[in-house]
Structures are given as C-alpha cells and as structure tokens.
Amino acid sequence: MIKQTRKINSIYIQMIKLLMLAALLAIVALTAVNRVGDHVLGYYLEQSGYLAGQKQKYIDKFQQYVQKNNLSTENVQQLNAWIEKQKILSIQVYKNDILVFDSDYPEQDVWNEDIAPGRHTWEKYYEVAFSDGAAEITITGFYDYRIYDYVFFAELILAFGLFLFIVLRGIQTKMKYIELLSREIEILEGGALDYAVTVNGKDELAELAQSIEQMRLSFQNLLSRESELIKENQKIVTEMSHDLRTPVTAIMLYTEIIKSGKYKENGQLDKYVDKIQAKAQRIKQLTDSLFTYTLTSGENIVKLDEAESCKTVFYDIFSETCNYLEQRGFRVVFQAQWTEEKLQVSREYVVRIMDNITSNIMKYADPYGPVFISLYDDGEFINICFENRILYLQEKPESTEIGIQSVRNMMKKMGGECTYGQLQGMFRMELRFAKSVEV
Q: What average pLDDT values come out for the chain (439 residues) when binned by 10 residues?
C-alpha cells in the first residue's frame, strides 16, 4: 500500500498530471478564444466594408483583363487561366439569366445548356462588359483567409503560452521547494541542528526532506547523548580521582610511619599493614569498577544472544546469587513468576550486572535485614526487583555509584531500563528487560 501511494504521489505522475491539465486548459482556452475571435473578426470585416472593397477590387481587375484580351463569355480557357492565377476566386457568369460560365467546373461546357437558376437574393451581381455583350457575374473570394490564419496563429501562440505558463508554474513550485531544502541544508551544515527541515507533500522530495529531518534529529540526539556521556565521564573521573586520592594518601602515610619506625610495638605494625592492605583492596575495587564502566560505556553495539525463555535465562543465575548471599550471612527472600515469554539478552552483561548488584549488597546492605529479590511480568517488560535495608555505619562507605552507572549502561544497550532509589531506609533497584518480538 505504501509503494502504491508513493507511486501515485511521485514527481513523475505529478508531472504527467500537470502536463495533461495544462494541455486541457490550453485547448479549452484555444477553442473559446477562436470562437470569440472568429465572431469579432467576422463582424469587423463585415462592418468595415473590407469584404465589399476586396470584391470590387477583383471585379475591376477582371474587367481590365477581359477588355485587354477582348474576351467573350465563350473564351473559357482564358477565363480559367486568369482565375487560376488568382487562386482565391470563384466566378459564375450569367447572360440573359443563363449560367454560361462557372469556374468551379472548368471542364464543363454550360454555354448551350438551358439553365435558369434565377437570381439568389443573398448574392450580389456585378456587370462586366465582354466582347459579345454585357453579362452579370457573381464573385466569391477568400479575401480574409490570411487574416483568419494570422489570428488563428496568434491564438495558437496564446494557447501555447498558457500551456507553458501552467507547466513552468508547477515546475517553479518544485524548484522553490528544492531551493528551500538547499538553504535549510546549508543552515544545518552551519551547525544549527535545532532548525527543523520543512516537509511538504508526499512525493520523492518530501521523502528526501523527511529523511534529512530524521537524520538531523538522530544526529542531534547523538550529540546530546555524547555531551551527556562526556559530562558523566568527567563526573566519574573527578569522583574517582577524589576517591583514589584518599586511600593512596592513607597508604603513603602508613608506609611513611613504618619506614621511619614510628610505631611502638609489633601489634601496631600489624595494624598499619592491615590498613594498608584494606586501602589497597579499596583501590583495586575502584579500578575494577572503572574498568567495567569504561568497557560498558565504550561498546556501541552489543551482540545479543538468541531469544530464550525467562526461566532459562535467569534460573541458574538467581540460584547462584541467592546461595552466595546466604553463605555470606544474608537472608534472601526470592519470589518469581516464571512465564513463557522470551528474552533476548547478553548473558555476559547479565552476569556482570548480577556481580555488581551482589557486590553492592555485600557492601551497603544491612545483614540483619532480609534481601528481597522478585521477578514478575507487567505485560510489557520482565521486571527484576532488588530490595534491602541500608547499612548505617559511623564511617560511611565510600561510593562513586560507578557500579550502578555500569548497570544502567548495560541495561540500556540491551534495550532495557534500570531505576533505583531510597525510601524509608530501604534501597530498591529495578531492572526492566524488554520482551523478544516474534518475527
């Protein structure tokens, strides 16, 4: 249906319609102008005496020819020869009301025929002196045919001009649109990506304009995402630098104490070593988190695995996660509404996400409160929810939220979403996985 619509609205079909419309209007205009022109010209020629003057002119020329050559009404060949030279005349000669010569039938001898047609009231008879006596003639001439030809030629030019005007007007409309698109493209080339491209009609030019507009929006979104990513990376680097500076400073302080021997006993030395080891472990955790974040944020295209059922994707992962947390002293409450809906995810990303979440639970969750893990289908997404009570300590654990940001990046690249927040001492994170679309 779309192809048919495009074909009907194509520029090629529009041009054919334009030509047909222009031709039709030109023909109608030519017919109307021709009728009016013939009527006006005929009236003018009749009223101005032009036709009567032309008849009299040829009668005088005919009389001179007859007298010069001393012709009689029986000199048919000479009379026909003169008429042929004139090309636009028809003459009938009457003598005693008898038709003795008719130029319309030059080969027919009418001299001895008893033809008495009588006088026609609409004809005007002129007297001409022949060598054998006076005769009356009627003369018919196409004296005005050249005028009518000139007028008709002018009418043709007028109709053709109307045809060209309509066609050029239609082409001009398209050319103006092309010029508009050209100017708008120059505006976009100048960097003004907020300028919307004009889309008019449904033809190929409109499709081109729509494609340019979509490209503008895509590029604008790309630049916006890139700007957000740059700001986000700057924030992460700033926070990471601050968080790294603290344990590094502590390590330098403790090593300086050990190096200078400023400790009282071996127990105090062991305490300083333990602190150095803890700070070094913290640095390792931060660098691992930074590596994960850099890896996930840098991958533009993620190859997803084949679509599988929800239970196939998550059952083993949840079993391992729950067992691991329970071994670390946490009480896990797991609820799942397994469905036959299929998901298309990256198993590598899913494992990374669960590792990050497990690490955060181990670090920030209150081990005396339960950890709730639930899976349910809301009709549009497969949702996985994690809830735990927040651990409150006198010394607040350092956090850059880089792990959560990594989770958000990985969910986004798989076509899902990640939301999180705190309410009344509870931390909640929800993962929303898009269902696989059957093809």
A: 57 86 92 87 76 82 89 86 81 84 70 50 79 86 76 90 90 86 84 80 81 84 78 68 69 77 72 77 68 58 82 89 89 89 87 86 88 90 92 60 78 88 90 78
Kind and range of the H or E run holding 261: none
Pairing of β 371-377 and β 332-336: parallel
Cα dihedral sign for 185, 186, 190, 196?
negative
Ranges of H-type helices in 261-309: 266-298
Please say whether the dihedral angle defined by the alpha carbons of residues 289, 234, 230 and 408, taken in this order, is positive or negative: positive
Distance CA 331, CA 368 (A): 8
Q: Which of 405, 224, 2, 127 is nearest to 10 (CA)?
A: 2
Of 140, 82, 74, whose CA–CA distance to 110 is shortest? Answer: 74
> Nearest to residue 409, comparing CAs of 288, 290, 286, 293?
293
**This model's pTM is above 0.90:** no
C-alpha to C-alpha distance for 201 and 185, rounded to whole angstroms: 18
**How many residues are given for the chain?**
439
Determine the residue type at 93. Answer: V
Q: What is the number of alpha carbons within 13 Å of residue 48 lying toward its C-beta? A: 10
For residues 269-288, one letter each, b for 16 or more C-beta atoms within 10 angstroms of the residue's C-beta and e for the rest, the string is eeebeeebeebeebbebbee
- Alpha-carbon span 346 to 379, nearest angstrom: 22
CB hemisphere CA count around 396 (13 angstroms):
5
Q: E strands of 39-155, at which residues?
A: 89-95, 98-102, 126-130, 133-141
Write down the H helix ranges in 265-401.
266-298, 310-327, 347-364
Using a pLDDT cut of 70, give the percent of the chain over it: 82
Q: What is the Cα–Cα distance from 144 to 146, expressed in whole angstroms? A: 5
Q: Which run of H or of E encompasses 183?
A: helix 145-189
Q: Which amino acid is at 52?
A: A
* Distance (Å, whole) CA 55 – CA 62: 10
Q: Which amino acid is at 350?
A: V
